[in-house]
Write a structure and sequence with these properties.
The N and C termini lie far apart (75 Å). Strands 14, 15, 17, 18, 19, 20, 21, 22, 23 and 24 form a 10-stranded mixed β-sheet that branches. Strands 7-11-10-9-8 form a 5-stranded mixed β-sheet, with helices on one face. The chain contains 12 helices and 31 strands. α1 (20-29) packs across α4, α2 (31-41) runs parallel beside α4 and α6 crosses α7 (167-176). It is α+β, with helices and mostly antiparallel strands.
Length: 636
């Protein structure tokens, strides 16, 4: 329960004199109300933890100094009643308002700081962050409106609502507290809707608090840093006493603590490079180097400085991820700024250093929980440089599209006959969120991003859990074309096997067709190959697909094999298949340059497809032969 301001029915008279005992009694009796008053008048920019502690400190310091009586105080009338408050309460309330107004003044070099402007000496809380219980949307909106007021206007609003004072009483307290123009403060407070009942909400009660730990990792780092600094001091002192030169093993190199000019420049947000808005129209190539800097925070030097500093020295609390084969070290020099803006609940910065895309993200409120992601993009051009993942949240993904992308849409690869869903993009090229491929469970859909560029060409990419989406192509490996949804209808779910593998592009090649025995139905053999940004780690997958099956059956797979790729555009795979009549067959197929197939049982056929009867448990091996007699093994 919020205490009510004390009242007496005495008639107005001379300003009463308040002694220490009277003020202390009022302070103890109405302590929660006075602390709430201080909390509401203090500027929200202090942060909730310091605001709580400062409110308690101001209230506890509001007693008269010394034991001698003689402190006179004017007591304003209350709205609608004409009653006078207890003199002791009026005195400590005035001191609380005066201290809260002083605490909101900016620090300058021209004068000594006032006591209220400094962090409170008492009370002190170590290792915990304190803050009031959360209220509703109305309390949050009111707190935001009060934050935009000046300190005096905020005090006027609170005195009206919390203390039920009329304008004359508010003017009297503000004048006594040192406000230069109380009338301006009252006029400014009039701009905020009078929702005074919300001031009694638990949102503004600094006596009923939640406690959470401070940044545990940062606290541990501070202790380690202090120990390292002490050790470094001892070591430097010892080294300064060593005679002569050249005692180090690094020869002519500068000492490790020397500041390298290039490294220093890489940390300066003022030295970030920015491409001109229309540079991509004049450039001989379309890659990330011609992306202009976009986003509403490209001029936020503090955000960019934090992003560069975390890139160079990520702390223990930063979540760092990198695609396989991507170095995660500091920038070698000034990077290029691609994007800086607010996306969903985060502030996001995208940078490019010629080899890598780096994404820095931090929450809108504070910097704890920052993330740093690296993706290798060397040699990216055209379709491979058309989009970047700018944010993921709740299974949805947002892309930042290249400046040459004219439209974007979503296609479900498992529904080739379905219509493309147009994606809205903002002025910076950021798409609205849409569902990404499922991370686990049944594969019932697989969304891909379809983009149309300024030339009318259509590209498809899909999210594989990294900053850069993987480009989807189809056709023979030596001359792939841009994929259509029908090329991936039965193979899309197999893309989950190369998630977070540093994939640059994935090609789907229907290399053979076969008529099934007994039924005469048609089947298709498809090889999908995922190429990586690092070169090594490519993965090939041969699938056997029937017309009535929703997905293909994996017949063979290989990693770091040239088969099914541009160097060796050939493949051979086999599978045991059970017919509707219950008979087992060994089916096999090779690419068109395979002229004959031989099974381990001695069966041989001319051509690139084979179907022979076999036992369910029989082990079979296929071998293909090219026109020049070269043997082709199955994919493995």
């Amino acid at each position: 329960m919020q205490s009510q301001p004390p009242q007496s029915a005495s008639a107005p008279g001379p300003a009463p004199v308040v002694d220490v005992e009277q003020a202390e009694a009022a302070l103890v009796e109405h302590y929660p109300r006075l602390v709430r008053l201080a909390y509401l008048v203090l500027p929200p920019s202090l942060g909730r933890n310091r605001r709580v502690l400062t409110a308690h400190a101001l209230t506890q310091r509001s007693l008269p100094r010394g034991r001698k009586p003689g402190v006179a105080v004017a007591i304003p009338a209350q709205q609608g009643g004409g009653h006078r408050r207890d003199p002791g309460y009026a005195y400590v309330r005035l001191q609380v308002v005066r201290g809260a107004l002083d605490a909101g003044l900016p620090l300058t070099w021209r004068s000594w700081p006032r006591r209220a402007q400094l962090p409170p000496l008492l009370p002190q809380v170590r290792g915990l962050r304190l803050f009031p219980r959360s209220g509703g949307a109305d309390e949050l909106a009111l707190d935001q409106r009060l934050a935009r007021l000046s300190g005096a206007a905020r005090a006027a609003y609170v005195l009206r609502g919390l203390e039920a004072l009329d304008d004359a009483g508010v003017r009297m307290i503000l004048t006594a507290a040192g406000c230069d123009d109380p009338d301006d403060a009252l006029a400014e407070a009039d701009a905020v809707e009078a929702r005074y009942a919300l001031l009694a909400s638990p949102e503004f009660d600094p006596c009923s608090l939640h406690a959470r730990p401070t940044d545990l990792m940062r606290r541990r780092q501070h202790l380690k840093a202090a120990g390292v600094a002490a050790l470094a001091t001892l070591v430097c002192g010892a080294l300064l006493g060593l005679p002569g030169d050249g005692w180090g093993p690094d020869g002519a190199a500068a000492p490790p603590y020397a500041q390298n000019p290039a490294a220093q420049a890489a940390l300066d947000p003022g030295k970030l490079t920015v491409a001109a808005t229309g540079a991509w129209r004049r450039s001989a190539r379309t890659d990330f180097s011609v992306w202009p800097a976009r986003g509403g925070l490209v001029d936020d030097k503090a955000l960019l400085r934090r992003a560069l500093a975390v890139w160079a020295r990520p702390g223990g609390s930063v979540q760092v991820s990198a695609t396989p084969g991507t170095p995660s070290g500091a920038p070698p020099g000034p990077a290029q700024l691609l994007y800086a803006g607010e996306v969903d609940a985060a502030r996001v910065v995208l940078l490019y250093d010629g080899l890598r895309i780096v994404r820095y993200a931090e929450p809108k409120e504070g910097t704890s929980g920052a993330a740093l992601d690296f993706a290798r993009v060397d040699g990216a051009s055209g379709p491979e440089a058309s989009a970047l993942v700018v944010n993921r949240a709740d299974g949805n993904v947002r892309y930042l599209t290249a400046p040459w992308v004219r439209s974007a849409a979503v296609r479900d690869l498992l529904k080739p006959a379905g219509q493309a869903l147009a994606l809205r993009r903002d002025a910076d090229g950021v798409t609205e969120p849409f569902a990404g491929p499922a991370q686990s469970g049944r594969c019932t859909s697989w969304n891909a991003l379809r983009m149309r560029d300024h030339s009318g060409a259509v590209r498809m990419v899909t999210d594989l859990g990294e900053l850069t989406p993987a480009r989807l192509t189809a056709g023979r490996p030596e001359a792939p074309r841009e994929a259509a949804p029908a090329d991936w209808t039965k193979s899309a779910c197999s893309l989950a096997s190369v998630r977070s593998h540093g994939v640059r592009s994935v090609n789907s090649w229907a290399y053979a067709r076969q008529t099934l025995p007994e039924t005469g139905a048609a089947a298709q053999w498809v090889c999908t190959r995922a190429e990586t940004w690092r070169g090594a780690g490519s993965r090939s997958l041969a699938q056997f697909q029937t017309a009535d099956g929703p997905t293909g059956a994996v017949a063979a797979k290989a990693e770091d094999s040239p088969a099914c790729g541009p160097r060796e555009p050939r493949v051979l795979a086999g599978v045991r298949w059970k017919s509707p009549g219950g008979n087992w067959y060994l089916l096999g197929a090779g690419s068109k340059d395979v002229t004959s197939l031989t099974a381990s049982g001695g069966d041989q056929v001319q051509g690139n497809v084979l179907a022979v009867s076999t036992e369910r448990t029989a082990r079979a091996r296929l071998t293909g032969t090219l026109a020049d007699g070269t043997k082709v093994p199955t994919l493995r």
